Structure formats: structure tokens, C-alpha cells
Amino acid sequence: MDNNKKIKLNWKKFWKLKKIKLASYNNRLLLNLNGFGDGPGYVSLTNLKKSQRKVCQILKIAPKETILDYGSGNGLFASFFLSKAKKVYCYDMSRTSIEVGKLNFKEIFFLKKNEIKNRYDYIICCSVFQYLSYKEATKLLLFFHKISKKSFFIIDISNLVTKAEHLRFRRNFTLNSKYLLPKHSYFNKNFFIKFAKKSSLSTVFFNNVLLSRQKKFKFSVLFKKE
Predict the structure, then answer these.
(1) Which domains does the chain have, with CATH numbers?
(2) Whole-number Cα distances in Å, 109 to 37, 63, 73, 130
(3) How confident is the model at residue 42 (pLDDT cuts 50, 70, 90)?
(4) Is the entire prediction scored with pTM above 0.85?
């Protein structure tokens, strides 16, 4: 396709255009299907394991506890916690991703939005906030506050401080693509600090949690209940 005639998309259309066959996949293909294949967000299988271990160390999940991965894709990231937690739950807006997850991870409880009614010890939300407006992000944080017992961990947030450099980095991956990658939302840490203060939560910020190609443009924040 002529690169001068690229297709502009929003994120919902971007994910709907990804054709996914319902089948069993190896972990590399599952990771690719979740958007971490060859591109700015590429994550190797080795770095995936390191990222999963780091999240586990930060949360200190006990065998009797539960965890919800919100925006889980097919559940590959959350599958690491099957041997750590009592129950692992996943939710994603992509029904196809959920169906693939059900075929590949039968021990995970995959939920529809209206089925998220319980309270979970921990919530993780990885590479989701880049798709949200500030209003949507605030609404989701309030929701996590409501349904979490101990903490919720927002992972891989696009950093407003490094926005210009990140845009240049991402642009290099669209030169030979028929798509113009949809815009990311960028946040500064004060956005989360203010929310935490209003909600009587404490925050801990981390770098290099999800070890993707664009990790230096990202940060993560853990919200802990007092």
C-alpha cells in the first residue's frame, strides 16, 4: 500500500482490525497477539518473565489471595500468577482475545465487564492507560479503588515528560506500515499523586516494570490502601 495513503484509526478500530484465529498458541504468538510483537512495544519472552517476576515481587501475592488483570488480552501476563494466587481473573474489551485466552489458559477465570462484581486482593492493569482520556483514566482508577482490597498496580504508563522523544521513537515504526498508529495518552506523575491524595491512598512509582523496547518512556504506579 502507498505509504502516503495511510489509514487513520482510533484504538478500538485498531484492535478490531487485528484478525485473530481461535486456536492454541505458543507464548511467543500469544504475546504478539497482545500487541507486544515486532514494533515499538516489542517484548521478548525472556523480558516477559522478568516483568512478571517483578510484579509478583512488588505485590507479594500470597497463595490465599486473588488477582484481577484488567485489560488482560488473552491472559498470558496473568497466567504467571496461577501458581502464586488462589484465583486469577481476567477481563479485556476484546472478546476475541478472551476466547483465545479461554482456549489457552483453562485455569483462569475470564470475565465479562458486568461480571466484575467481587473485590479482589490485587488488580493489575498493564498497557491500558495509553488508550484512555484523563476522564476515562480517573473513572477507571475510582473503579479499581472500589473493587480492590489491598492495592492496584497501573503498569506501563506513557510519560508526559518524555512525550516528544517517544513520538519520534514510535514514528520510526510507522514508516513502512499501512497504518498510522493511534495517538497515545500521556500522563505525568502528579495526576496519580493527586488522585491518591483525594482517595486516601499511598503511591509507589516504578520504572522498567514492563521491559519493552519503549520502557524508557514509561512508568508504573502502585496504589496501596492505608
Answers:
(1) 3-225 (3.40.50.150)
(2) 25, 16, 13, 25
(3) very high
(4) yes
